[in-house]
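Quick log. Single chain, no ligands specified.
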Amino acid sequence: MRVRNKPWADTLIADNEKAIVLEPAQYRGHWQDRFASQQPLHVEVGTGKGQFLIGMAKAHPELNFVGIELQKSVLAAALKTSLPEELTNLQWVLADGQGIENFFEPREVAKLYLNFSDPWPKTRHEKRRLTSKTFLASYSAVLGNGGNIQFKTDNRHLFEYSIMSMAAFGLDLRELSLDLHTDVAASEGQLENIETEYEQKFAAKGQPIYRLVARIPEK
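-> predicted structure:
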């Protein structure tokens, strides 16, 4: 997808260095220094315009959040939206999520979020899927035993692939939903779901949303 350039993005990023990180590797093992309080760290890979992570940071002040996004203009939009909220438990990272083990030490991250990732449907592009074994190895490296991965998508084929990929990798599948919004409504407030921009778009068209939570097994 082609992203329209935003002329103001560079200035906004340069003026808000306390909220955004351009060289994440330098904080490996020291991410808590970026936050007002030392709290469990949750990371979203491919944060888009930030609606999900901003919502999570507002709903969970007891947690710290990092959103990683490769597209500068997209992340600048997330930064712009978040600034008026003055969230001291939220940081943005302008970087490629591939090689995340270079950004965080083992066990530094408690939970990872993958929301509406590119499905890369062609077989020859399997290694680009964010739930392929190469990416899972990177996630496992920063999560450590007991860490969780939460994955949401509107793509049934990617969801099925992710279930098989995670099971083959040895992850424990803890939650599976084939119609998340119906399950949330039926839970009467017991099942939390902060929606993304894409999620709202697809759900409005009647498209079911799929979600799973996988856990790194204790060894």
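Helices lie at 9-14, 51-59, 72-82, 133-143, 156-169, 180-186, 197-204.
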